[in-house]
Amino acid sequence: MTAAAAETRSESPDETPAGSRGEGRPRRGGRWIEHWDPEDEGFWRESGERVARRNLVFSVLSEHIGFSIWSLWSVMVLFMGPEYGIDPASKFFLVAMPTVVGAVLRVPYTFAVARFGGRNWTVISAAMLLVPTAAAVVMEPGTSYTTFMLVAALAGVGGGNFASSMTNINSFYPLRKKGWALGMNAGGGNIGVPVIQLLGLLVIGTAGAAHPRIVLAVYVPLIVVAAVCAALFMDNLAPVTNDTGAALDAAREPHTWVMSLLYIGTFGSFIGYSFAFGLVLQNQFARTPLQAASLTFIGPLLGSLIRPVGGRLADRFGGARITLGNFGAMGLATGVVIYASAERSLPVFLVGFIALFVLTGLGNGSTYKMIPGIFQAQALRRGLAGEEAAAYGRRLSGAAMGLIGAVGALGGLAINLAFRQSFLVAGSGTPAFVSFLGCYVVCGAVTWTVYLRPAARARRTAEAAEAEPADEGRRPVYAEV
Known about the structure:
- There is one protein chain.
- It is built from 21 helices and 2 strands.
- The chain has helices spanning about 5-10, 40-70, 70-75, 90-115, 120-130, 130-135, 145-155, 155-170, 180-190, 190-205, 215-235, 245-250, 255-285, 290-295, 300-305, 305-315, 320-345, 345-380, 385-425, 430-450, 455-465; strands at about 30-35, 235.
């Protein structure tokens, strides 16, 4: 069966030749692709790559807007002057609300792809972004803090989009290209953070801090466009079926929780710093809302743009190597930030903090590349080969991504709470940065111990060799993590 035929049938569901329905699966109508085998190089070259790229483009669009809405309140708090009556510690707690809700939603969003189809769920999840956007019209002095907390929590649906989008794109691409594809998907989504911050800067700089609703007015039509484009141009993959057993298997796998820790260090840092950067500048360096907004977008923008580079480097050199080096560099950058924070040196602080953003982006790409490689290696250790091994890897890596993404996002919550406590106790972010440095040291040590120390590498090599079928003329592709 050719990829071209698969694509044609996705467009014309009534024209399904007999014998082409994998395992007797009935046609479900709509844009469903019945056969998908990206590891088959002929299939991939013929038209599989074209279909995957099309889905990637519109997945990025939807996820991009989802990230913007998820980080909406990191912008809204910059509009909150003294007339709102909300102190700095309460603002840190306010921007933490979407983080925790988004983290929790990532688990069900992961399995929604298999339940409803990647294209169908993208349409639904994009349309749901209208709810927190419309609810944010409460932005005006006199609104109760409780109301702000509830409305900010609604923005968490934007954080859930990441998990479903990554799970969906993971199924479209072959293992050899997952680092690049997942990096592009996540990086394009992450750029939603600096984009909405730039929009906030534009509004504050032109209309003034009294007009936050202009930001909302811009995003409502964009959300509609994303939902319509997903409906028109994306596809569902029929071979991706709902498998609650995969979630249980992934939860029992120690590597899922090891990678969750590493992802806290990379993505948790990225999203936590993105939400808190403007408030840190206002409270530690006495920047005005306009001055803070003019700086906050730089770090998230660079961190988003470089995420695909992290994935590409991981494809070439191995995700674990890139991740270890990245945590070492993050420790050094944090040391610069601690010095600048203690000395109240804004230029040095900005250099160190922006370097941290860049490194979190690189680490995001390399850690996510490690996930499918780990479970591909697990398949080989079980004696599987070929498409059977690839299917096993896709099944568990897709399930694990939801859990890892959820735990990693909670790192953003921890960062905002650490800043809140640090400013309450010390009136500075310095103690918080010291705790972050300790976290990066632990993450680097774990990466080395589990994936890179000589004994671990020798064991993995031996296990992969034992898993090679005796009658096969060549060793199966082994994805080094």
